[in-house]
Amino acid sequence: MLFVREGNLLAQAFDARELRITGEPFAVAERIQHFTQIYNSLFSVSTDNMLLYQNRAPSSIAQLVWFDRDGKRLAFLGRPGDQASPRISPDGKRVALHVIDPQTGNMDIWAYESSGGIATRLTSHTGIDAGPIWSPDGSRIAFTSIRQGHADLYQKSSSGAGTEENIFRSERIKHPTDWSPDGRFVLFRAADVESKLELRAMPVSGDGKPTPFVKAGFSVSDGQFSPDGSFVACSSNESGKWEIYVAPFPGPGGNWKVSSEGGSEPRWRRDGKELFYLAPDGVLMAVTVRQTPTFDADVPKPLFPIRRREPVATLDLFSYDVSADGQRFLVNTDVGETTTAPLTVVFNWVSDFKK
Fold this sequence. Notes:
Layout: E1 2-5, E2 8-15, E3 20-29, E4 34-35, E5 40-41, E6 43-45, E7 50-54, E8 62-68, E9 73-88, E10 94-100, E11 107-113, E12 116-121, E13 128-134, E14 140-146, E15 151-157, E16 165-168, E17 174-179, E18 185-191, E19 197-203, E20 211-214, E21 220-225, E22 231-236, E23 243-248, E24 256-257, E25 264-268, E26 274-278, E27 283-290, E28 296-297, E29 301-305, E30 320-322, E31 328-334, E32 343-347
Antiparallel strand pairs: 1-2, 2-3, 4-5, 6-7, 7-32, 8-9, 8-31, 9-10, 10-11, 11-12, 13-14, 14-15, 15-16, 17-18, 18-19, 19-20, 21-22, 22-23, 23-24, 25-26, 26-27, 27-28, 27-29, 30-31
């Protein structure tokens, strides 16, 4: 039986008849690539004793970087780390994101002052906490936590004080994407029984249950409320590839296609007059929009290419965020190696080790 412990690949004899391990484990390979987000290590073994594995590489290390609309680097925020989903607080003074501890491998939510400084830890549970979103007044955060065997929705004070409150529990995988401007709903993405992604709106207070916002024969993700709460921008693959759409909230109603050649990760400017998204080639796009008398959008215009930290798992929802005035962008920029570690193949690996 092969398994990873403290980053190293170990093997231990297994008695198939008695269904028990025997003897002591022995090392097979060191520094195996491991992704905490998906509880997965990159190795595999075949029935004819062929072993395949990849060593750990710093490809998931990222640095938060402020850019202007021309792509000029303005400032760094915090230190490089294995991190994702940066979210700027409503007042623009703080940035929350989830970070993996390189020592323990656990994931928690941290927050920086947007002007710099040392990060403050907001969660410290032994289970994974990820994907923070801010309440409209900035006093609370909602997030995903895997502490009861599946991804559930929690909220707590954005100061980090107090305990976490479970606001929705179910066996389906779900991740919050935004909080409505009136504070009444948390929009979250969930996988249905056919593994398609759908958007649901969850009442934050009371005994209300989540209701589908977009539930169809295709997948929908990245839901973001417009600043006045009357629309939701999202990415959808209903056309056969991921594009950006806008639909009225809470519905019903049609939707409007905003992107032209594919897109993901929509963001609104605070005045609701502009939408941003990522094109498939990594270029940040801007679209002038109008919400009255009906929704309308101009032709998307490219701003600048980004080198984002590629999502490792469904927990990694967003690569960037935008300031309220739409003039600055905080990008979770990949600073790892441009090439990945090679795959190592070992033939008849058992013969090289003492049983």
